[in-house]
Amino acid sequence: MPQKELDLFKAFRNPEHMKALAKLIKQESKTKIRLMEVCGGHTHTIMKYGIPQILPDTIEFVHGPGCPVCIMPKERIDHAYVLSQQPDVIMVTLGDMIKVPGSHGSLQDARSKGADVRFVYSPLDTLKIAKDNPEKKVIFFAIGFETTTPMTAALIDQVIKHDLKNIFFHINHVTVPEVMEVLLQSEECLIDAFIGPSHVSVITGSKIYDQFPKKYHKPVVVTGFEPIDVMEGILMIVRQVNEKRADLENQYKRSVSYEGNIVAQDLINKYFDQRELFKWRGLGNIPKSGLKLKDEFSYLDAEKIYDKVLPKEEINDHKLCICGDILKGVAKPTDCKVFGKACKPSSPIGSCMVSSEGACAAYYKYGGVL
Amino acid sequence: MKLITLAHGNGGEENNELIEGIFYKYLKNDYLKKSEDASLIEGGKLAFTTDSFTISPLFFSGGDIGKLSVCGTCNDLAMMGAKPKYVTLAMIIEEGFEVSVLDEIVKSIKKELEICGAVVVAGDTKVVPRGSVDRLFINTSGVGVMQLEGISASNLAVGDAIVVSRDIGTHGAAIYANREGIDITSTLKSDCASLWPMVEALKDARIKPKEMRDATRGGLAAVLNEWAKASNICIEIDEEKIPVCSEVKGICELLGFEPSALANEGTFVLALDPNDVDEAIKVLKTFSQNKMCSCIGKVTDEYTKKVVLSSEWGTKRFLDMPTGELLPRIC
Q1: CB burial class (10 A; 0-12, 13-18, 19+) of residue A257?
Q2: Do A121 and B328 touch (CB under 8 A)?
Q3: Do both B167 and B132 map to the same domain?
Q4: Domain CATH number, residue B45
Q5: Distance, in angstroms, between A356 CA and closest chain B CA?
Q6: B289: domain CATH number?
Q7: Which of A32, A240, B131, B146 has its CA 20 to 30 A from that of B137?
Q8: Segment B65-111, tens digit of pLDDT
Q9: What pLDDT, in 10s, does the model give residues A285-332?
Q10: How confident is the model at residue A367 (pLDDT cuts 50, 70, 90)?
């Protein structure tokens, strides 16, 4: 393909470098390492670029719970569905959230039945929707890890500054370190080391992973999303294991610092408090793993305003679904009885099949027999 | 499948479920069974097809709904090796639609028909109350006269080469970048174009493609998967050889899309005897938009009914039929 202009991708997908890194990993890797890539973005890279095919058998991936769409429990999606049915409501959310099925269906289904459901690429686009529809109540269904939380905070900031009366929030933001800790504390846990998330760490800084090497003696390497990044991150972990070290290292230095984006962190802290519990699809309740609006902003909180109509019952995960085991690393998507049969990206049963970043969806799309 | 969702119109898996589950249930016959871009009628002398068009915005970079409604139908005929000749034009217009805009659109239709060498032989207009359609929907049907024989999706055999006429995904990426809520500034133009002149040039150079298909909804990925199934073969593609311009690449990286799943409106894929490849590429490159025309892979029997992508570092993966509504990934 002719090169016309600066190519921002090619260097991070250079075949010679990929092969050289694969060779080094093969030469140096001696003991079995079960690596958890926490983030769905990494799962996507690993499967899309066929990375397991060029690694030695000593490296085994455990696909982590870092896909914000996948881990959203049905209870929360049902909230979104019910809110979309309320009079004069416009439901706004991010991208592929609208296809996740709850017990009544997905927001996409709600839309096909007449609800006004829209997706935005940037949460700030919600301002325009609210301005164009002054007679409507615009509810932003906020989801995502630390990566997207600052964007929701920025939207809240604008709503308060401009005293906008018709934007409300349903907050479902979750945080990474708490779920990593829960996985490590589980008895069946088989994780030896972590590939730390890229975008989350840009916001939080690598400091949020300090405890894992210190307290649990597990290496953590914060790694970028490109295939070269992932290969280099794996090599850094192999070297730590060989040298019997457990350190926090940063492969993704071009974007991630130890302290992170302080402005974004301040904005998050200004508007959000930790929830006592947040339920993760496939993993259950995890203490302090979710965020909520601070009490002083409860006049913006759709969860409080619509409290009377929102369902409260617990919903159990599907009996045949083994997403919880997949997320703990004790099973692979292909171990699941319904994988690729009853459970497909077009009709997902479990959390890991829901978004293209989920482990099962990535296996379905890219994996199979190859 | 209780309600129709947008995913049912995506040209991918859900779309096929709808066709199999509802339309084929009642209407399947020898013509439809072949699942070609157009059906051959009158003993194979004529090709016949239809297509409907709804797009927002009506005018986009590189085209408009009028040009699209001619290209879409005429390209389906061209892909069967038929020269587009007669076209019908039906319009469903929302009340309140500006006559000057309609004038622009019909002018654009005329211009594109001249490129294809076809004429409108019948038409229909319906005006519906506000809110019943999104401004303007167009349906066109077309009849073409067969010029190249034996083109079929079930023709592919081991050893055949796969060629794509130009860089892929520009229509899908340009439309997505233009849509409300996606704040991307781009100079990208849709590839919207009539393909008959290119097919005619291939014919004049005595090249006989075994199969051709324009990669519209569902993109390159859908075409290759349909061929692999129809011919019961495996298509192996070298990923780095798929031509993608850097703007489309960038938009895909930002939104989490695959260029191979994006729609095209003037890009086609050919299956050829490997001996014809160099000449075919030479002919196609005489059209200015086809500078990136390239051979991207070949037909094998390794994994039948599957499309396999190979990376430059020796890994392989399946390229699946696109599924679902195209939605940006969250992070």
Answers
A1: middle
A2: yes
A3: no
A4: 3.30.1330.10
A5: 8
A6: 3.90.650.10
A7: B146
A8: 999 999 999 999 999 999 999 999 999 999 999 999 999 999 999 99
A9: 999 999 999 999 999 999 999 999 999 999 988 888 888 888 777 888
A10: low
In this predicted model, what pLDDT tens digit does every residue of B249-278 receive, in sequence order?
Answer: 989 988 888 999 999 999 999 999 999 999
User: Which amino acid is present at A49?
Assistant: Y
A74-174+260-305 fold = Rossmann fold (3.40.50)
Structural tokens at position B218? 């569902």
Check CB contact under 8 Å for B328 and A41: no
Q: Of A43 and B69, which is predicted with more confidence? A: B69
**What total number of domains does chain B contain?**
2
From A187's Cα to the closest Cα of chain B, the distance in A is 31
**Structure tokens given for A187:** 């008895």
- Residue range of the domain that includes B289: 161-318
3-state secondary structure B187-208: CCCCCCCCCHHHHHHHHHCCCC
Six-digit token string for A236: 């850094």
Q: Determine contact: A370 vs chain B, CB below 8 A.
A: yes
Nearest-by-Cβ selection for A15 from B246, B308, B312 = B312
B193 and B291 inside one domain: yes
Kindly report the pTM of this predicted structure: 0.88
Residue B216 CA, chain-centre distance (Å), reads: 2
Instruction: Closest CB to A148: pick one of B313, B316, B330.
Output: B330
B121 and B38 co-located in one domain:
yes
Q: Which two tokens stand for residue A279?
A: 């339920």
Tokens coding A85: 């049915």
Q: How many CB pairs under 8 A join A and B?
A: 119
